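User: Fold both of these, please.

Assistant: Here is the first one.
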Amino acid sequence: MKTNRFVITVIGVDTVGIVAGVTRVMSDFGVNIIDIRQTLMEDIFTMLMIGEVKSENFVLKDFQDKMTQVGQEFKVEIRVQHEDVFKYMHRI
């Protein structure tokens, strides 16, 4: 079974329920949290996660679209990138 890992970033003004909303979608899609970092700088919320899924039926575009909807609901920006793409884009 193929394993896919993703980098999920969340940034915006802090509000109640952001973490719950993001992790609910992750659970719905069978994405496991491998690592998580979260920081609150005054009223700015930031979160960086590594997620992993081991499903042949996983569709990245559907997951990204649902995360975008959650981001709009909480007025935060949520980006989901495959780990390989993230590493490639951020190499020196």
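And the second sequence with its predicted structure:
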Amino acid sequence: MNGIVAYCRPGFESDCAAELQDKTAALGIYGYCQTKAQQGYVVYRCQNEEAEHLAKKLVLKELIFTRQFFAVLAHVTDLPQTDRVSAVQVALLDETVQEAFTGIKPCGDLRVETPDTNDGKELSKFCRKFTVPLRQGLRQIDWLTTKESDRRPTLHAFFLSNQEVMIGFSYSFNQSPWLMGIPRLRSPSEAPSRSTLKLDEAFQVFVPEHEREARISSGMNAVDLGAAPGGWTYQLVRRGMMVQAVDNGPMAESLMETGQVKHIREDGFKYRPKKKNVTWLVCDMVEKPARVGELMTSWLVEGDCQEAIFNLKLPMKRRYAAVSEYLEHIKQDLVENGRGRFELQAKQLYHDREEITVHIRWL
């Protein structure tokens, strides 16, 4: 099987596929997608040399509905229960694979993964046990370096069952740092709501680790629009920020007791800070996405914040087309009315549901 495999949230395969078709066509590659509802991944079929090109040029950071993707090396559908390692070795030692992907081996790391589905979760125990013998077997045939290396491509073993696996690779400069593209976060027991994990994940996805100390630090001023009961405010407080929590609803007492939160009982669409000293604006209001996008853009254009993270709720149908329209409108407003260069990122995060999370900052 030639092409790439993209991991996505189950139920969003068609949106992931539509985006892949759009982005690959922009790169001059015209393959086709194979999808199945609720399977948690999309297969994009193209030639080997095109798949390798996409592994470099299809920028994961710019994909909204794809968590991780890899270029396919081999697809094994009849793994024997007694010696699966040898079957994988045979597939990777095939001459056509060796010739098509010269320069890929040896890879610097191995990730044994599954789709993010109930069936995939049942496979996770098997994958954990199988990782060590598979790693050893791949080193025997020189498909893995003796020691892990982030300068070499990463090898992916994507198990669909304990008898079927797709083997592929991603480049270290164009991949998610997390297994299956999912950061493993624990919900803090003291947080007022589970929505707190969305902002925690957004900070990790959108702000590179080496920049977090400078861009997300104690003493900064932040505004949380539609804050109650305080799930997102909690993440700002735990990072040492002073927060203006804007909502007519009640805030969690535990947050108010920190002394870092000022509760402003006002409509989030009408409020503006008196001083232009706000670094972070965050917003998780359940409102029409176009209206939220306009509000966030106006804060940035008028200099009321430096960076913004917010959610856009998705329609039931043609979600990728709708998202593209929302984001294009935001970009146009920033270009026409803004203060210079900006960075805009959007992702359907693991902790999102029928929504995407957007990050914008001035450069």
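The two ends are 42 Å apart (CA to CA).
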